[in-house]
Every structure is written in structure tokens, then in C-alpha cells.
Amino acid sequence: MSYPTYRNLIGGEWLPAKSGKTLLNLNPADHTDIVGAFPSSHAEDVELAVAAAKKAYATWRLVPAPKRAEVLVRAGILLQERKEKFAHDMTREMGKVLAETRGDVQEAIDEAFYVAGEGRRLFGVTAPSELQSKFAMSVRMPVGVVGLITPWNFPMAIPSWKLFPALVAGNTCVIKPASDTPLSTYNLVQTLVDAGVPAGVINIVCGSGSGVGTPLVEHPDVRAISFTGSSSVGSHVGQRAAATFKPVSLEMGGKNAQIVLNDANLDLALDGALWGAFGTTGQRCTATSRILLQKGIAAQFTEKLVARAKALKIGSGLDESVEVGPQVNPSQIETSASYVEIALAEGAQLLCGGHALTEGAYAKGTFFEPTVLGGVTPTMRIAREEVFGPVVSLIEFETFDEAIAIANSIDYGLSTALYTKDVNRAFAAMRDLESGITYINAPTIGAEVHLPFGGVKQTGNGHREGLGAIDFFTTWKAVYVDYSDKLQRAQIDNQQ
Which residues are catalytic? Predict the structure, then answer.
């Protein structure tokens, strides 16, 4: 069987890994369909990429920010033209349905145009000086060479969240795409090259976390790391980066709760629950993993949710009629199955799903049934640990305050949702839910590029994508201009 072979982009050249080895990228809906072979890179490839980025930084940082932004405008236009092809490529390598991969590409388009506007808004601050004939201001400066480590579930959107603000701020980049989904990141980087990004400004090195991620994090010439992935790996990244004092942006896991009160529009809440729990086959950090039901509507809601979950069509995301695609690899199937077993052992009830699909049309892929677990209590592992699959737990509660306490009782704090017609409770939830994102009468998924994205507790370390990305990819410089033509001493002369 023939399939394309891809290379690393280093200093404007497409180069094989020094090892000569490759990794196969497989279609999760059909493992006999090989999307391509990608480099299995290691530290020596990272070294070359960082050196290329460091060399390019000397000139890229001097390009005026509005001119850097024009490259992103051109990239956004090219992404619009290539959207359908890139969406098909992404469904083939990642599995999620075409409607969602089109949305993934669209998010990169939106990010391109949004961040391009920041090229004329990298504002500093002027301030009065303590001394006469002295001007004081602060300006944003690029960080330097930045390392970007991205996940497989949004293989174009999330790289765009990192690449675009890093570039418009004047940094140069080395990006490591997820091994399961490198093609979509390659498509994004190729589009940026076609839009006019100079050689060496973006470098892409494909390989494993240990082979590429760790050397990138530890490299002394990499001045910052932006990471999206699991909390366990994020902890490792943060600790390794601390050894060289580089700032790290960590966007990690979630165990997101949708709260449904007795007065909620139940049909709307059901739509939100189905989309939040089973969109992207549950493989989102913002996926609805817990549904908290007030007891007055719990039985009715549960019955309808189970019926609708059973009716979801599962299959290849390339089939426009399919609603739930495969999980990305066998390891994710094993995780979903093991958590169902753990939940049942702890006393939860399997209301539907719970099994891998391995027969007939599913035999060549990695499919798992949409799964609903009832009788879950807040202390069960299934209610506290991230599954990252199409598995949702139902937890009942009596009072609004109890629901808030349950939602906040976990180690994560990314996304929350509340369904209610009570405006007072809606505002109390916005204030009291411990999460970086809160939705009212909308599901836990659906973030927009121009708002801050990220979480609290073990979900993140305080930095944000979206609105906050420029803050991470720039550093402040204070500038003083003394035009008095004499020595003035701040904190000394101004006391006279």
C-alpha cells in the first residue's frame, strides 16, 4: 500500500528525522487506511530546529507587528480556500465527524483574523514620571524562541491558538504536533509558509513526547513553552521547564459539570448534554463528564437522555450522517472501558453503552458506545477523574448550594454549565463555580477564540489562550527617557 511520507520543517527545509525512522498515522475508523508516515524525531532534530528559530528571530522580531499580522490575514484567506480538504484530512486522521472538523478549521480561520488585529493593538502604557523632564513608558517585547506542544483532539485549532499570537508578537516557533494527528498541524504550517512566513520562523518537529517534547522543554535557547495536554504530562513539563527558568503556559484536563435545575428548559438541557458529552466522542478537555440533576427532574431527564444516547449513529466521521466517530486510538478505548468497569465496581449503574464496538463495520477501527452511568455519587472515581471518552455520569442533588459544592469538589476547574430560568441563581453560579469558563443555558463546550480559554486548579497554571495569549507571548519592558540634560535620581531627587 502506498502512502505519503512527510518530513520536519527546519530552517525552511523539509528534512527527514536524523534517525531515519518514521511513525505511521492511521485512520482511527479504519486502521488499514494509512494517512501517512511522519518523522520519528529526537533531540538532534530539536537542536537543529531551535538553532534555525534562533537565527530567524534576529530578523523576524524587527518586522513591524502590523506587517507580521498581514501574513496571518493571508493565512486566514488560504485556510478558507482549503477548508474542505483540511477538514477531510482531519477526519481521516483524528476521527471526529466532518461537521466538527470543518469547525476545527474554521476556528483556525477565526483565530487568524482575530490575532491579525492584534498586530495594531500591541499597546504599551505611558505614565507620568516622578521627575521633571523625564518620559516614562512600557512596551511589549517578544519573548524569543518559543516551544509549542499540542494535542490530538483539536489538531489545527489549538496549534493556531499558539502559533498565531506567538508570531504576531514577534517570536519564532518550534512546534511539536501530537503523534496521533500530525497532518493537520502540517497543513496549518504549510499554509503559513504559503502566506509568507520566512524560513526558520516556524519549525515543525514530529515525534514522541520523550523524543521531541522533553528536549524542547529543556533546551536552554527556548525561552517559553506553551503546552496543551493531560495534567500528568503538564506537571512533568512544568517541572522540567523550571530548571531553566522558562515560563510555561499549561492547559490541561477537565471533569466538567452540567447542572440542571428543576426549572430548566429540559429539551434545551438535553440537547446540551448530548452535544457536550458525545461531541468529539467525548474527547475534549471541556467535554461534559458529569451531569448534575436536581431530583425533581432527574428521572424524566435520565430517561430521555438514555433514549437519545442509544439512538446516536456511530461510525466513520467521513459519513455525513454519522453523529459519533471513533476514539483516536486503542489506548483511549482501553481507558474508557476501564473507567466503566471501575464505576460499576463502585456501585454505579450502566444505563446504556459501556462497551467497545468490534464487529462488522467497526472491526477495523476504535469505536466505543456512547455511555451513560446512573447512580453515581460525588466520591466515586468516575465522578472525579478524567476519562476523555464518550462516558458521562449522572449525579442527583437536592439544593442549588449542594450542586455548586459537588461541581467544585474535584481537582479540575475548566468548564461548567448551568441550566435554569432563575437569573439570581445564574449569577450566583457565575460567581461561585470554580472554573475558567461558565455557560448559562448552553453546554460545557463551545469556546470562542476572542475570549480567555483556560482553567483553575489542576486544569492550568493561570495563563490563558485566546484573549490572554498575547500576554504570555510578550514580556514587558519599562523605558525611561530623561531629557533634562542632568543626572536625576529617582526616589531620591523627587523627595526634595
Answer: 251, 285
